[in-house]
Amino acid sequence: MGTELRLKRPWHARLMIFSDLDGTLLDPVTYSWQEATPALQACIDKDIPIIMNSSKTGAEMAHLARQMGLSWPYIVENGGGICFPKGGPFQCIEDGTSGRSLDHVAIGMNYERLSEALLRIAAETGACIRGFSQMSPEDIMALTGLDRKGAERAMQRQYDEPFLIEHALPDALERIRKAAGRLGLQVTPGGRFYHLHGAFDKGNAVRWFADRMKPFGNIRLVGIGDSENDIPMLEEVDIPVWVAPPEKPEPAVKGLIKSNKATFSGPEAWNQVVLLLIRERYSR
């Protein structure tokens, strides 16, 4: 069954921003977006959608959206699903006679199958792998710096199994990737964890939006990220932005831009680049 996007109110934007969270819009240590506040407020003032696109769960992103004052859709668990908050400007309508309004579009694979597959991969490769499904809230708190409620939200997974490789041999990741591939799965490095998921990524979810945004006019899609799992998203947008620290290698993405301040990364770079894009696009 197909879907289409509809607007609940008048909306005229020139940009739509897809943004990673940890290490991009959020500080990788404190999880603060304080340094990006001026650009966030400018986006709110100009009705520019900020579509969060992260490995985080729906529970985590709903909490963040409320804190940030964002009502736009968000993409969860590395492209595994798209959530449409109640009261948000966009409505996702199912094609067909029902015309149902959907609050969630599933793209990814069932989480229980992923956690079972990770155990199978560990047994096949002999690698010492520990996934979220094997961790307690206390484990996740220690690994991430989250408080207990934050850790519990991070554990409410549907489409993506984060994991660690402990005591890894040099070829462990390659063996794990090959074993995952034989099961029709993918392994993607994130900021803190590796992620096991189905044959989808952040770019697939951006493409879902791009296909349905065409009736709304000439809107430039911006993608902002800092990690390998952001590259598929950056490859799908008109304006790809890299906000990783300078010591991190840049991906070979056509048209990639970054902060012109060599020391800027994360939310500081996010703020500078987004304000620049708004000035350029809205001064014409």
Unreliable stretches: none
N/C terminus separation: 40 Å
Summed up, the helix count is 9
Give the radius of gyration.
Answer: 19 Å
The biggest beta sheet, please?
Answer: 5 strands, parallel
Give me the strand/helix succession: EEHEHEEEEEHEHHEHEEHEHEEH
Question: What value does the average pLDDT take?
Answer: 92
Question: What topology emerges from the helices and strands here?
Answer:
Blueprint (H helix, E strand, L loop, with lengths): L2 E5 L7 E5 L17 H9 L4 E3 L5 H11 L5 E3 L4 E3 L6 E5 L6 E2 L1 E3 L4 H15 L2 E4 L5 H8 L3 H7 L5 E7 L5 H11 L3 E4 L4 E4 L4 H12 L6 E6 L5 H6 L2 E4 L14 E2 L7 H17 L2
Describe what you observe in this structure:
It is a single chain. The chain has helices spanning 37-45, 58-68, 111-125, 137-144, 148-154, 172-182, 202-213, 231-236, 266-282; strands at 3-7, 15-19, 50-52, 74-76, 81-83, 90-94, 101-102, 104-106, 128-131, 160-166, 186-189, 194-197, 220-225, 239-242, 257-258. With 284 residues, the protein is α/β, with parallel strands linked by helices. It folds into two domains: 3-107 and 216-282, HAD superfamily/HAD-like (Rossmann fold); 111-197, Putative mannosyl-3-phosphoglycerate phosphatase, domain 2 (Threonyl-tRNA Synthetase, Chain A, domain 2, 2-Layer Sandwich), CATH 3.30.980.20.
